[in-house]
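Okay, is this right?
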Amino acid sequence: MKSGKGSPVSGFRRLRVRPIALGVAAALFALGLSPGRSHALPVGEQVTAGTATVQRSGSSVTVTQSTPNAAINWQAFGIAAGEAVRFSQPAASSIVLNRVVGQDPSQIMGSLSSNGQVFLLNPNGVLFGAGAQVSVGGLVASTLSMSDADFMAGRQSLTRGSIAGSVVNHASIVVPSGGYVALIAPQVVNAGSINSPGGTVALAAGDKVTLTLDNGSLLGFSVDQGTLNGLVENRQAIRADGGVVILTAKAMDSITRSLINNTGIIEAGTLAGRDGAIWLEASDIRNSGTLASSQIGLRAVNAITLESGSRISADGVSQGRTIDLTGGFVGLGGTVSADGVNGGTIRATALGTLSLAENVSARGLGGAGGRIEYKSGGVTIESNSSVSDVSGATVGGSLSVNAAGGLLGSGTYRARGETGEGGRIDLSGGTVRLLSAQIDASGATRGGLVRIGGAYQGGRTDELDAGSRERFVGRFGDAAQMATSARTFLNDGANIDVSARGAAGDGGTAIVWSNQETTFLGAINATGALRGGAIELSSKDVLRRADLGRVDTGPGGLLLLDPKNIVIGDTAAAAGWSLQAILGSGYSGGKNVDLPLDSNGGFATVVALNSAGDRLAVGSYFNDGASGANTDSGAVHLFTFTDRNFSGGALAATLGSGYTGGRNVNVPLDAYDYFGTSVALNAAGDRLAVGAYGDAGASNANPYSGAVRLFTFTDSNFSGGALAATIGSGYTGGNNVNVALDAYDLFGSSVALSARGDRLAAGAMYDGGAGNANSYSGAVRLFTCLLYTSDAADE
């Protein structure tokens, strides 16, 4: 064993916190319902506060309440199909608290009605069946508890007891105008319809929740204590036109997670001139359905994921339409729209990564365009299927990107003014890389203002002469301050249009700036029939390249090149790269592939393509196996695409510990093997080499000596995957190869396959040389490996 080799690899064994998986099935079946359980009418009543009487007549029960508030304990509370429970209350502001103290969940399959407000609290669970009819002034259904003292004193505080099941709705729940529906439990699922015109619908997951009620209305609520595996899910329809829909799922602590998942429709439109609102807040928010309201807000501690095909819409005539999305990670697929007569406002803020994949618009369909703001503390990544549009039927709106970790954009940005002036587009960040991005701020009467990487001269205006001030700054009024980019790069597929289309139009302004280095290989159109526009291609330090062949200011226009150092000419253009797709957790829409990845899995540390570029191997060497219990054993994920442009991306197979079924291959691995350290595909994509530099040899006694595993497939779709051979310390038998390795050689730290897949190069970056005296000098071992059994005769 080589001395001192422990320290370079000791960091691999790091403490990692793994999120708890949230299962919808757990939320549905936590009720403990069984087909044989009775749905009989409520029984075993005891009035514990206030005054109320209970009358039974055949299949119906009538509860007559004579005090404003009343609390009743029931041994069981259920309503079978064809049965009815009616609460007759003094006024719409009256509340009856029904508390189940028996062991059975409440199954509401028949009719529940009242002229006031009904609380149903059952820690065993509450289910509203598909055929149930619920018509009340206000409804609280919860598996949390509330004391009589708090209830009678007007303190609507719900707290979890020793058990707390789920609340599930399959029914049609209707409350009158201004009423409310509140479903509260650790897990809440709506698979039916809820309608509260002008009122409030609240679905909340937590262990302690406080409601604020006033005269029959729910003014608000707070989740004071989160819960383990909190879940709020909407599968069908929630409507509160002119009112508010609030979905909240709060986690127990910073380690656990909570989830809001909307696959249905949530609407809170305008009613009698009053705008509605939708608010969602959780650790994670996933939307593959529809959210539609004048005001929409999503807050996620971890991630907001908008799936392809989803829709978030603040469309309509209201002037105050806003969509506000804030999360650790924000992935925008589907459609996010604040279109209207005049465009609304869309803000997307990510503390980490922001991903743009499909359509975001705040267009002015009859007037001015709106505003879109993107901010990220990490990187902002935009694939070429992304379109951000603030165009207006009259004048264009404003669009800004500020990515502290850098902007990588291949999408389309529009701020067109159809009959008036073009709008404003600001793109900046730590670095700016625009690969075939399309930027349009053209107008009819005047082109707009586009600033990439910074403002004019990086924001310096103190030395501007009057003419420059008017052309670059003054004619656009007060332009917002913007961050400056260290490096700005536009490839030969990038296009900027700030032209004026009208017969008497004035060309707009385009600025490309950096603090350190600017490379411009794209095209700019700033022409205008009346007067050409103004263009600055510059840097505080180096203008590395400025290809002027497709830069057109038009007659009377102005071109400024003012860096410290400059290289100008007809240089070799970039290859025209454009971002086609992203594979990763939460990336959705377009060609992106959303993957169910664990934190700290090391996904994409290494990658390999076949020769056609339509098959991909991705190493994930910190993967803990299918069960999550085989720490850092590692895995390799295999993907197929329907063409060479990475369309139709799909996860075809996973190779690793415990992965079975489909095309998966269960590989015998130990903890800390780091399988997937390196990967290599042959030309056809049916042979694969995978390094595992943490492998301890066949006897598991040679730590970090390393190994390489070779796999065969029956076709290039990764069918019939099999482990064909293992090369490493002590591996013998079959096609295995026993290699003389020392501990901490890290054999398999790199691998390469020939086109046929019958030749292998494998690196051991910590090999100490033949005499083991040249520490960390490294070595490469070359192997012939006849994976094609028919090839022997060809050699």
